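Side project, low priority. Logging it here so it doesn't get lost.
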Amino acid sequence: MRSRRAPRAREKRPSRSERARRRRPERTIRAAERAIEITLPARETPPERVLAYLGPTNSGKTHAALEDLVAAGSGVYAGPLRMLAQEVHRRLSARLGHERVGLVTGEERVNEGAPILCCTVEMAPQQGNLLVLDEVQWADDEERGSAWTQLMLAGEYREIRLLGALDALPLVRRAFPEVELRVFERKVPLEWIGARSLRSLTSGTVVVAFSRRAVLALAGEVNRLHPGRVAVLYGAMPLASRREESERFLSGAADVCVATDVLGHGVNLPCETLLFAETTKFDGEERRELHPWEIAQIAGRAGRYGLVERGHVGVLTGLAWGSADPSLVESALEPHVLLEDGYRAYRVVDEARIRPRLADLGVDDPRDLDAALEAWHRVALRAWAHESWLAVESLQPLRQRLRAVQKRLRERGRRLSLGDTWKLVNAPVDEDNLELLATLALAIAGDRIARPHLTYLLDPTRLHDASLEEAEQAGREASILRWFALQYPGVAGVTIERAAALEEAAAERVVARLRVEVESPTIGRCRSCGRSCPPWFPLCDRCAGIARRS
């Protein structure tokens, strides 16, 4: 017997006013686009010379480029991380004197009028004498690549040095057909050492896992064999905490460092031996095997030039909850992708992400920003759709920030200027901190409701009993507030001194709580019986079974 389909409910016809209201936003966007004069970034004067220094980690390419910067006497070093910019600043200041070298990041300014500046890429000036652009393969990064691309596409520099992995050779040649290439080889070769157990860990070893919880659980296991001599590194730690843990390891105060893949993102932490505890990671969408280039980028930290003849790379065994694929790591130690001229790499990077600058949008009212972003995206896609090294990135994250800020302003009956709105939606704020971004918007707009919340956030005493997670969050907030204090000094009581004090307190609390967590683990330990268990579960299999039966 054929089943009968349930009758569809009849939809109520919208009224004339409702139909008009639904059409109005579309007309507004079209009207706004007619007034928008979209432009695309381009360089007016080509550089006199572009050199690409490409090669693996530990090959001396950064040293060579910094020598060029010293010889030039003026210019910019632009790197991916604040920690790396600080490291180069210390290195050059020790050689040239503090008065000749400055530091500019989103969170700090030191002698910014100096002839040589060390910057994070987003803060690098758009013109100068010599640009040293580090980790050029980051131009293909979905979140931050456009900062590299803007400098390559429109930076007005007399000379440019592009540093990075050989993977970026196709991109470099597409962007600069006349580029001069210098390929660097590793100074310390890598040796595959196979599997190593927890008990066989030697001094100078870094063990890598791929989540915060896995790192903390592993550090607790290692600490049982090396009490008090384990350092920990992961991305959520405040910068000062990372620096302190790195120094403990480099000075020998810690025998072993347990870290995430933050090592592969420019953190300079050379070691004698590097072991992978895992070869899978969650990338935000799924848990997958590591790509060969990811393994190679991390493994390249093994080997201290001048101290050891070779670096050792292997996998860690003996963990009850994790395992690494030895064949995957071993095969990734040699590049396997053939490039032009016979060079070999781990992948092909031949495109760079691009997004607009405010000057490209042609608007003077912040209410038109969303329509302008949509229009710019369409124009850029058409312009660079064929035979281009430029990949237009999605602007949805940027538009989401814009809507969050404008929604909060409307709720409070406040407005911001075009420049302030653009500056905020491009602030160094993670997507889970959009509420703080909206609060900062209200502070700039003069709404007194923002001040009590910011006063609470800036109070270091709130961290006296903070958990590790709370201290990490305070560190992220301190970094945002440092940026805000530089852009808007004293607004709503936010000063660089107060933000720096919060950052210092957060870093101290993180280090203190790390010691407790490593020495008396709660992550990776069953809450019922205390046995080792997977760090993402509170109970071991045995205790979980008992709990289910009861």
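Brief comment: Residues 1-34 have pLDDT under 50 and may be disordered.
Revisit when time allows.
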